[in-house]
Amino acid sequence: MKAFISIALLLIAGLAVSIGIGFHTKLSEDTLPFDDDQKGINDQVVIKFSHVVAENTPKGLAAQRFAKLVDKKSNGRIKVEVIPNGGLYSDQEELEALERGDVQLIAPATTKLSAFSPKFQVLDLPYAMPTRESIIEALNGEIGKTLLQSIEKGNMKGLTFWTNGFKQITTNDGPVKQPSDLKGQTLRIMPSPVLEKQFQLLDANAVGLDFNETYRLLESGELNGEENTISNIYSKKFFNVQSHLTVSNHGFLGYAVIMNEDFWKELSEDQQTIISEALKETTKWNQTHSFDMNEEQLRLIEQQSDIEIYRLNDEEKENWADQWGQVYDEFEEEIGSDLINKMKKLRVKFSDL
Ligand code: LMR
Questions:
Q1: What are φ and ψ of residue 93, in 5° steps?
Q2: Which pLDDT belongs to residue 8?
Q3: Which domains does the chain have, with CATH numbers?
Q4: Does the reported pTM lie above 0.85?
Q5: Residue list, ligand 1 pocket, CB within 6 Å
Q6: 166 CB-near residues (< 8 Å, 6+ apart)
């Protein structure tokens, strides 16, 4: 009898739960009040934008600005999800993730495209673009156009270029004034044959490593130093684990903004226009402010740390440029003489060396 009562109670309880679930489902499907935020949610296009730097950088801020503009221009129908700090993919991984379509947008340093298109190394030539104006002319002109075309062979749609700034050198083994001061030092660089060659010429040991590994390796002493923009040195706090900073302006660091091509083709013409317009506005903002941001962050490093800062004078810069001169000839075949010649002309036009 007891067993019969227990089974009956269980059945009644089960029935009550099922009715509850059914009622709940019915409620959410049919009778919940209309929520404007959910309207058209299934038609929303989501663009995952992965990058490796901090948010308070020229790229980090441009990415956020772009996301806001797209949201506004599309009335929320296109959403850009920005994932900074390599939170989703590291430098190397993000290119593969883009090609697979796991993310739709990335903005890798142009250097990181050299394995894919060796022509990109033209932007890494030492002292190639001596002023910010020369950089803007290279990126927005013929050189940039040729470079973006050169990556069309992959599942990539090159959209525009963003700037960060000039690269500087930090080390725990300084000061670094002459090229020979780097002899024997182990330095982190972005993976790139032309950068490797530059440091080889100075008898330094340059290693291509992921950006977000750099702080740890500098702190542990496995690396003596690295080269990067002030903005990256500041936002990733490299200055806290380095004793010397040389303001050399010896190279450029900027970004190619690239979309997965299949994804781009599936967008409607209207959606493409919204993205292109938002990108155009963002690029203008980025190219106008990135260099000042670097200058401001150099002042902050000076205020916040006791790292020793040395600024190369013009004569010293000329010495560094001479030491690296042969790189132009050695990479002419890989990069292409047309691009190298265009860059040499630009260098002369804007030279303040
Ligand atoms: C680096 O690896 O040093 C840079 O590419 C990081 C960045 O994206 O600015």
A1: -65, -35
A2: 52
A3: 42-350 (3.40.190.170)
A4: yes
A5: 52-53, 59, 91, 109, 164, 190, 211, 228, 232, 253
A6: 229, 249, 250, 251, 252, 253, 291, 294
